[in-house]
Amino acid sequence: MYVKHLQCISCGKEYPATPQQLTCSECGPDGILDVIYDYSQIQKVFTKENLAINRDHSIWRYMPLLPIDPNVKRPSLRVGGTPIYYAKKLGKAIGVEKLYLKDDGLNPTGSLKDRASSIAVVKAVEAGAKIVACSSTGNAASSLAGNVASLNEYDLKACIFVPERAPAGKIAQLLIYGAIVISVEGSYEDAFNLSAAAIEKYGWYNRNAAINPYLVEGKKTVAFEICEQLNWEAPDWAVFSVGDGCTIAGAYKGFYDLYQLGMIDKIPKLIGVQAEGCAPLTRAWETGEPWQKTEENTLADSIAVGSPRNPEKALNAVRKSQGMMVNVSDEEILKMQTFIGRHTGVFGEPAGVTGFAGLKKLIDEKKISPEDSYVVVITGNGLKDIANARKAAGEPVRIAPDLEKLDQLLKEYGLIDKL
């Protein structure tokens, strides 16, 4: 393992990289830690040439840049290696020539958060834990439950706290995977606070990505894949939907790692997109003032986080990359869900397509150049939330089993010639 130490992003204090060390003892719960690597040593073993012959297309192909003991057993689910598509038709529709979609909804449990949960499970084993817990609006929960279930060698259990608004499909996933599911009567913040109290009281391993510094390291692998899949040509911009802020923070860390290793020649500018009904980080970015708690008024449940737990890493990622943030309405999100599907065949959940909705808005407002290259990460699969997908797509046409009526309908749709 090529980790040097952990470092507090607030006071700079350093700590040994043990699985139990999650926050800064000086700064308290807000003392978020960062994993610091020995890049000079990593350069000796981690090269483009070695990756080119590596047959493992999961996140474990990036082992030298991951904070885990390579000898510890890992979940058997294949996390990572999701496709990236050159979305020519979609790009043309919004006036962008070089547009790529990274479909992370094709991870094993249907979201990018599998990347973080696979690391969480390994760290829990390293820590000797029997129960690993988290709060979640759905995707982090299902990814943790699925990865725990796939760990054959250890008797590890997942305990999940979800707000009552969590979609039924995501709850079903948790129960199928055998997790202990606790539905909290209240908001995501209520679920988070109860999970934090339980983790503290019972000594469970903490999978909450905004607290546990190791989980951002799993999320950063999406940036590794983007650059490798684009033949090490980093895009001008990378676009992410934002809730707690962990995913965009992880992406920046991944691009930063590759830049430090000399594997890419620039760090992409990052665009963070929030739903306007729940946008504490966008407001902080626009005003330059500390973030403030907001309501969670959006149908994009995976990013409905009114009290983000990792705001500074997210805001630092946008600022250091010279990027920007933008809000979009729920109506824009639903519209883009069908827009992407009909132009690419990619089915993203509302939070998963929020990033693209923000990109389109910025292009329409001429705040970014259509001549630049863009990668939009679709963070979750549309099958996670069928209720909103039906709302976005509408209802099918219904007719009686009558060929003449079908003929008339097809003529109205222009599918056959009118006589």
Summarize the structure.
The chain is an alpha/beta fold and 419 residues long. Helices cover 38% and strands 15% of the residues.
- The level of helicity is 25-40%
- How many β strands by DSSP? 13
Class based on secondary structure composition and strand pairing = alpha/beta
What gyration radius follows from the Cα positions, in whole Å? Answer: 22 Å
Beta fraction: 15-25%
Can you describe this structure?
- The protein has 419 residues and is α/β, with parallel strands linked by helices.
- It has a domain at 84-109 and 215-393: Rossmann fold, CATH 3.40.50.
- 38% of the residues lie in helices and 15% in strands.
- It is built from 16 helices and 13 strands.
- The chain has helices at 39-42, 48-52, 88-94, 114-126, 139-149, 168-176, 188-202, 213-219, 221-229, 246-260, 280-287, 311-320, 330-344, 350-364, 386-393, 403-412; strands at 3-8, 14-15, 33-37, 84-86, 98-103, 131-135, 157-163, 180-184, 205-206, 237-241, 269-275, 324-328, 373-378.
- The strands form three sheets. A six-stranded mixed beta sheet has the order 4-5-13-10-11-12, with helices on both faces. A four-stranded parallel beta sheet has the order 8-7-6-9, with helices on both faces.
- Helix 4 (114-126) packs across helix 5 (139-149).
- The longest helix has 15 residues, at 188-202.
- The chain is globular, with a radius of gyration of 22 Å.
- The N and C termini lie far apart (73 Å).
- The mean pLDDT is 93.
- The modification N6-(pyridoxal phosphate)lysine is found at residue 113.
- It catalyses: O-phospho-L-homoserine + H2O = L-threonine + phosphate.
- Pyridoxal 5'-phosphate binds at residues 139, 379.
